[in-house]
Amino acid sequence: MSELKIKDINNKLQGKIELLDEIFNSPASESVVHTAVVSYLANQRQGTHATKTRGLVSGGGKKPWKQKKTGRARHGSIRSPIWVGGGTVFGPQPRDYSISLPRQVRKTALYKALTMKLADGEISAVKSIPMEKPRTKELSRILNNLGLNGKTILIVLPEKDENIMLSVRNIPTVEVMRVADLSAYCIAAFDHILFTEDAVVKLHSSAGVNAE
């Protein structure tokens, strides 16, 4: 098992925590992370784009002029695609872009993304982030103490903390997420991942393995 240093909000060492190899030393291929990221982004697309075909454009029920003896080309409707204001040929229509991945594949991708982040030294842990009330300035000071300013940061908590969530709203480079909501995309999208100690413990328990 690898270890992760646990620090307090003043960047002083408080101890270490052992990391499960199942989560932080995944042997899976990096391609599974790519697959999960593509799936996540595809699932964000609404697919509500639409254009009107000639059958959807209003009007045009009457033949504009008779078929013969006018000296003009034959036309059956002013809503033909070759007319100004007519329908669109092969235009985008509403569709579902979502890509479904098995739960086990999503979990494998998450563990591989965490493995890659840890190998790059982009994961750290803090004992806790005590916030008695929402204070952006205080949270920014804590991140500065930990040497994380200037990076995009994902703070991972065991459960929702309203004070921390409200404190990061005015920091565009910082997001907060529960362990239960983690995905490979979220891990890959940030420069640095900051866990609380309890969040690491909960992540271990979510893998179905007991670890101290």
Regarding quaternary structure, how should these chains be classified?
A: single chain
CATH architecture annotation of the largest domain? 3-Layer(aba) Sandwich
| Spatial shape | elongated
N to C succession of SSEs: EEHHHEHEHEHEH
In order across it, which strands form the biggest sheet?
Answer: 2-1-3-6-4-5
Structural class: alpha/beta
Count of structural domains: 2
| Total beta-strand segments | 6
What is the mean pLDDT? Answer: 93
Low-pLDDT sequence parts: none
Question: Which superfamily, in CATH terms, is the homologous superfamily of the largest domain?
Answer: Ribosomal protein L4/L1
SS element count, helices: 7
**Can you give the helix content as a percent range?**
25-40%
The share of residues in extended strands comes to: 15-25%
Separation of the first and last Cα atoms? 12 Å
Radius of gyration: 27 Å
How many strands, which pairing sense, and closed or not: the largest β-sheet?
Answer: 6 strands, mixed
Which fold does the CATH topology of the largest domain refer to? Ribosomal Protein L4, Chain: A
Highest CATH level, the class of the largest domain: Alpha Beta
